Amino acid sequence: MTSAPTKGQAGAQERMVSASAATRLVLLLLALWTAYSGVALTLFPGSSSVALGGGIEGDAAQRLLGIHALALSPVYALLGWNPRKYGVLLWLPYLTQLGIVVVTLFDVVDENLDGGDALASLLVSGIFLALLVYLWWAGRRPLAERKAPAAGGQRPSEGTSPSGTDS
After folding, report:
1. Is 101 helix (H, G, I), strand (E, B) or coil?
2. SS (H, E, C) 20-76
3. How far from 64 is each of 56, 58, 68, 92, 116, CA to CA, in Å?
4. Within 10 A of 82 (CB to CB), how many other CB atoms are there?
5. Which of 40, 44, 45 is nearest to 58 (CA)?
């Protein structure tokens, strides 16, 4: 017997997006954002790039950060395009976004950086980090699918035989 597809509101068929597909989309968006901020920091250093660079004010420092961002952008794109093939680098977006959030927050709390200068970088990196962590967590096997204990809360080796009678 086959089950009928579930219907959503107004009779439309529901579409589900898998956690892996959503993670790939987030990684591609991260690649686009990183490329955009890398180009802005490298080619157009100045007052608008201070916000993208997390408060870095020197032109040379902004260009250096921009080159590093441009180097990371293709890696994020490859991870979004084929995460199974490049899975060995899957830790990189998590670590880089966490690093940006931690370092920027440290500088704001330590009053080395004005909160307004760091707001764009902190906000965008925090959102990407939250999305990546949530999608990683959502992609894990649900608790209901994990192996449940035998009836009565005991395993067969804990005093009952597989048929359910005491041994």
Report:
1. helix
2. HHHHHHHHHHHHHHHHHHHHHHHHCCCHHHHHHCCCCCCHHHHHHHHHHHHHHHHHH
3. 10, 10, 6, 19, 22
4. 11
5. 45
Q: How far is CA 68 from the centre of its chain?
A: 19
Maximal C-alpha separation, the chain: 79
Structure tokens at 73: 């952008």
Sign of CA dihedral 51, 62, 26, 96: negative
Closest CA relative to residue 120, chosen from 37, 25, 35? 37
Task: Indicate if the pLDDT at residue 16 is higher than 50.
Answer: yes
Phi/psi at 149 (5° precision): -70, 160
CB distance 105 to 122 below 8 Å = yes
CA gap 87, 156 in Å, rounded: 39
* Model confidence pLDDT, tens digit, residues 59-75: 888 888 889 999 999 99
